[in-house]
Amino acid sequence: MSVAERALFLGSKKFGLEIFKSIYYTSKYLKWRVLCPQDLDDIRTYQDEFLNFCRKENLDLLVVTSVEMVTETVKDFEPDVIIVSGYYNILPKKLLDLVPLGVWGIHNSLLPKYRGGAALVWQIINGEKELGSSLFKFTTGMDAGEILHQITINSDDKTTIETATEQIRKLWIEQLPQKWRDLLNGEVELIVQNEEDATYCAQRTEEDGEISWSKTAKFIDRFIRAQATPYPRAYFIFEGHKIKIVEHQIFLQKVYGTPGQVFMRHKESVVICCEQETAIKLVKVEIDGVVKNASEVLKTISVRL
Predict the structure, then answer these.
(1) What average pLDDT does the chain have?
(2) What's the domain range around 70?
(3) Would you give the end-to-end CA distance of the chain in angstroms?
(4) Distance (Å, rounded) from C-alpha 159 to C-alpha 124?
(5) How far, in Å, CA of 222 to CA of 272, rounded?
(6) DSSP letter string over 132-184?
(7) CA dihedral over 118, 121, 127, 129, signed as positive or negative
(8) Which H/E stretch holds residue 91?
């Protein structure tokens, strides 16, 4: 039997909405309230979809603009349990102490590895062969609380941030409802994180997606795949324009050249020299919101980026 009567969801983005739906349909008997951070300036925003779903289900939804608003709502609503997915501010101890069954979050890494921001992006950039996601209890430390459950997927040289997120989403939708029921029934076994194994990653901005051609082609390939849609895409600057990479390949032959130099042009693509005698073939790029063949933008082999 559930020991909870009230539950609160705090989060955003497509992933967050799917997570919320999976636990909401498992526990519609609870009195729910939904909090969404104001994120309309983020291309990944799903605020309208949250609003439409909550309207359809007759659920209370509040758009919050600060941690203080979240704290005041928790004081007012008095939830027994909170689950978080897609909220990126640290919640204070005074809030955590208000929630009897705890505040729980989904973090897309195999904790204690990759605590912090943009964890899945960093895992792909770093070439991890195994990616993962953790359901854990919030504490005052960064992503440091006890772990309730983890899921794992394999990563290869075709994995993008979109395909990895989708695989993780599907696994959570399959596995989370039972874990949520166990939590509500007080039937969970938790794993304490080993601090000696902890690693951390910094938040990323769109500007962090600028390509450095003085890296190897394999690194740049991972860098591009880690920031593909729905993220803003990896890019380089050419003649004052931000050129985003839409389609690319690793050039398989060894190339001697200066990193950033256009080595070869084809009808649609161009080949750019990278570090250690490697190269990247750019096929499709986006400039000023328009997708073009790379050869339409980089029109001569005299170009150096």
Answers:
(1) 96
(2) 6-200
(3) 63
(4) 8
(5) 16
(6) EEEEEE--SSTT-S-EEEEEEEE--TT--HHHHHHHHHHHHHHHHHHHHHHHH
(7) positive
(8) none
Among 178, 200, 222, identify where a domain stops. 200
- Integer Cα distance of 279 and 264 in angstroms: 10
Close Cβ partners of 178 (under 8 Å, ≥ 6 residues apart): none
CB 17 within 8 A of CB 50: yes
Check if the beta carbon of residue 121 is closer than 8 Å to that of residue 115.
no
Q: Does 238 share its domain with 127?
A: no
- Rounded CA-CA distance 200/48 in Å is 32
**For the domain that residue 216 is a member of, what is the CATH number?**
3.10.25.10
SS3 call for 249:
strand
State the pLDDT confidence band at 43, using cuts at 50, 70 and 90: confident
Predicted pLDDT at 1? 56
Region of 206 on the Ramachandran plot (φ > 0 left; ψ -120 to 50 alpha; else beta):
alpha
190 lies in the same domain as 245: no
Residue 107 near residue 143 (C-beta atoms within 8 A): yes
d(CA 18, CA 11): 11
User: Residue 242 in contact with residue 235, Cβ under 8 Å?
Assistant: yes
- Is there a single domain that holds both residue 92 and residue 53? yes
Q: How many CA atoms within 13 Å lie on the side-chain side of 193?
A: 28
CB 103 within 8 A of CB 138: yes
pLDDT digits 0-9 by tens, 126-152: 999 999 999 999 999 999 999 999 999
Angle between helices 161-184 and 13-24 (to 10 degrees): 30
Paired strand residues for 244: 235, 286
pTM of the model: 0.92
d(CA 226, CA 224): 5
The answer to whether position 66 is within a domain reads: yes
Amino acid at site 46: Y
